[in-house]
Specification:
By secondary structure, this protein is an alpha/beta fold. The chain has two domains: 197 residues, 4-Layer Sandwich (Metallo-beta-lactamase, Chain A), CATH 3.60.15.10; 104 residues, Arc Repressor Mutant, subunit A (Orthogonal Bundle), CATH 1.10.10. It is 33% helix and 18% strand. The chain has nine helices and 14 strands. A hairpin with a 2-residue loop joins β13 and β14. It is globular, with a radius of gyration of 20 Å. The protein starts with a strand and ends with a strand.
């Protein structure tokens, strides 16, 4: 049921992705604001407009859109809105929204190099271009305004921006101190741990980000805020965030220790570790499973439990 709760209406929208429905949020503030908008499909747009109608709102009534991050299931339907509508998001979203030829080239070259370093067999190299297939559900327009932690969004004076990188480099969350409400995008999910996804190096940098290490830091960062209720990007709300954070961090550490056990007996490549972690799905979901595997490797390197062994262009990992 679509309804207002303390000035927030949750809109649940269908997606073509395995994750299922995505949540967008309408904020009844000085400026009527939509946070995220779903993927670019007619089914999503019809669901969005029909749920808005139940709130006596038309798409043209929306005065601005805020994006929690750049993933297609959160931004694609932007293309259905007028070009004049203000759109706010983190500056790191921009290259994913505009997708210039130079960025696509950098994207593919990054993954081609990583595939070699990860020890992925040549038979999988054709999947590099397929890593972008979900972007067909994204939008083809950029931000009108960029925001970062400490920025203010017009009409949302009660909301502060918290940068929460990990799941995406561009990820932000919105916090309303007066009642402890957090709109968390995909940074906090009730039933699953978000996959911190690999991304190419940021502009001007040569090293890729380490998304799982970032994600853990961003989770811990939320402990500094008096959060009472979390509106999530998928699924239900979260009411006991400290407990969830503790559970997520504990589970992730245990998973990393499992990876360490794999490489105690013999050095392994990222691909070989991925095969052991995800024996039934790594071929079908190579991008997601490799991202998860690399995340655990980054974590173990960060806490000094393992080390790298370079074998030509490929890298192996072994326990210390």
């Amino acid at each position: 049921m679509t309804e207002w709760i303390n000035g927030i209406a949750k809109l649940t929208l269908p997606t073509p992705f395995a994750v299922g429905d995505v949540n967008a949020y309408l904020l009844d503030e000085k400026r009527l604001t939509l946070v995220d908008c779903g993927p670019k499909t007619e089914e999503t747009w019809n669901a969005l407009t029909s749920q808005l109608l139940k709130l006596n709102v038309k798409p043209n009534d929306i005065e601005q859109i805020v994006l929690t991050h750049h993933h297609p299931d959160h931004v694609g339907a932007l293309d259905y809105f007028p070009d004049s509508l203000p759109v706010y998001g983190h500056p790191l979203s921009e290259r994913w929204l505009l997708r210039t030829d130079s960025f696509i080239k950098e994207h593919d070259q990054f993954y081609q190099k990583q595939f070699v370093e990860f020890g992925i067999p040549e038979s999988y190299y054709q999947q590099v271009s397929q890593l972008r297939k979900s972007l067909r559900y994204s939008c083809h327009r950029g931000l009108t305004n960029t925001v970062q932690e400490g920025s203010n969004i017009p009409g949302l004076e009660d909301w502060q921006i918290i940068e929460t990188p990990g799941h995406a480099q561009s990820h932000i969350s919105l916090f309303r101190k007066k009642d402890g409400v957090l709109i968390a995008g995909d940074h906090v999910l009730a039933h699953i741990s978000p996959n911190p996804l690999l991304e190419p190096p940021l502009v001007g940098e040569t090293e890729r980000p380490k998304p799982l290490v970032q994600y853990n830091q961003s989770l811990k960062k939320l402990s500094n805020y008096p959060i009472q209720k979390v509106y999530t990007g998928h699924g239900e709300e979260v009411y006991d965030l400290p407990n969830l954070i503790e559970k997520r961090l504990k589970r992730q550490h245990e998973r990393a220790m499992t990876v360490k056990e794999f490489i105690t007996a013999q050095p392994l490549s990222v691909f070989e570790i991925c095969q052991r972690l995800f024996p039934t799905v790594y071929q079908k979901e190579l991008s997601l499973t490799i991202s998860e595997t690399v995340g655990q490797i980054d974590y173990l390197l960060n806490i000094g439990e393992i080390k790298r062994i370079e074998e030509g262009k490929m890298v192996l990992y072994t326990a210390i």
